[in-house]
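ok so i was messing around last nite and threw this chain in just to see what happens. nothing serious, just curious
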Amino acid sequence: MKSSDSEVKIRAIVVDDESLARKGLTMRLAQFPHVEVVQVCKNGKEALAAIAEEAPDLVFLDIQMPGMTGLQVVENLQQDNMPMIIFVTAYDAFAIDAFSANAVDYLLKPIEDERLAKAVAKVTQQVERKQSAIEKQRLLEIVIGLTGKSKLAINEWLQNPDEASEYSDRLAIKDGSSTTFVPVRDIDWVDAAGDYMCVHVQGQTHIMRTTMKELEAQLDPNIFQRVHRSTIVNLQRVEKVSSHINGEFHLTLSCGSSLKMSRSYKDKVKHFF
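result:
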């Protein structure tokens, strides 16, 4: 059988107490370029040690072995380190027990080429699905780090890209080697301090290295509006608007802070109040 064009690699261990059986299966697995036999074991004890050391994707496991059977090997494996198992035996009476142990497949000696190919194909499909899920998770974590969006928001966007919001629901604020994710809904207001933004969140202030324009682009304008050239406010936090003789307004927020709204921004936000 020729390997598929997939980049999937399967690391396998062969376990059998018969020398000829071990050598024969290892040689036959060489026809599958994406399958690498990393260790060959002659008993259950060696198998457990090899599985712990190699963390293989797949184990071809003989059932009837002296000292420890293949079924007992599976019983002694840690669930978080469980490879896929293909049982190999000369006795079909063990088939029910094999599948009860969640085996991927069951091969009867002497192994037919077609059955071996089907078993390897079944494992290959499962490894592909697993690797695809891992890659999706890795990409999801990268997107979360870059956008500040939550996993839920990104998944909603993937399912309904036309309906999802283009704005972040979290801000990723880096501080040295650590990153703090701040829920956008919790932001009270933001003000500029030179090349930095002071993000005020429920009594705490986070320093973010970005420009006012860049930060403003990440925030939903239906909720956040600039009220001064150096201030963005969460409109949902505004409890009171007070006018002054000079034409300026002061905004009182639910957190108790008072912010000045300059005349140049009054007309842009007055319809929100």
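not much to say yet. The radius of gyration is 31 Å.
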